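Reading a protein record of the kind used here takes only a little practice. To see the layout at work, look at the sequence and tokens printed below.
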Amino acid sequence: MTQNTQSHPSEPLLRTRNITLKFGAIQVLLDISFDIMPDEILAIIGPNGAGKTSVLNCLSGFYRPQQGSILYKNKDLTKLPSHRIAELGVGRTFQQIELFSGLSALDNLLAGRHIRMKMGLLWGAIYFGKTRNEELKHRRAVEEIIDLLEMQPIRHAHAGVLPYGLRKRVELGRALALDPEMLLLDESMAGMNIEEKEDMARYILDVHELKKIPLVLIEHDMGLVMDISDRVIVLEYGRKIAEGTPDEVKSNKKVIEAYLGSELTR
């Protein structure tokens, strides 16, 4: 795996400005601002409890910040419910796997297409013409994902009985089934062994190269983050303490202290 060094268009796809999130008296995020550029891999890192998943939850509409704005294609996502944000093209995976365990891998991917399905209940009862053509279109899209993520051997297996690493792959596939224009990946490689991480990293890079969309990932494996990311944002206690290229972040004193402790860096 090699670090992505391509240049980016100057106009961000998404802008966050001064995002502040509280749960009662608990300060979760404070004054967070950053941009997401088209066709980049942006990593968000930080110690446990730094607020990384909370940022993704704000971007995808699961949390509503008390202050600040999140502009995606000039629409303020803080005013929209999560399903509308998904319809606009923001897909995501979750830290805790959220699959339909009783459905096959194939059916989980088809479920991810529901927002793109246009035929209503009446048309669904009449299986010909527009309804049949739409189903064929969605099945073709799912088959492309199955091929991309090498899921052929597990396509008919129930998600609930799959090994952990394969369930993570199915969840990535379901997020791709949305046809996202931006993809948020919340610890897609957590809990995996080295081989599974390498496979998942390869799939993520393949998705990025094929889809040409920005990926925002949260990951604890620093070697992997520095290897595949274009840009890195570092959070600590809900604040942004650094932002830059992987090389810039690795040498940042505040980042070193956040991970190792100030006593160890003296």
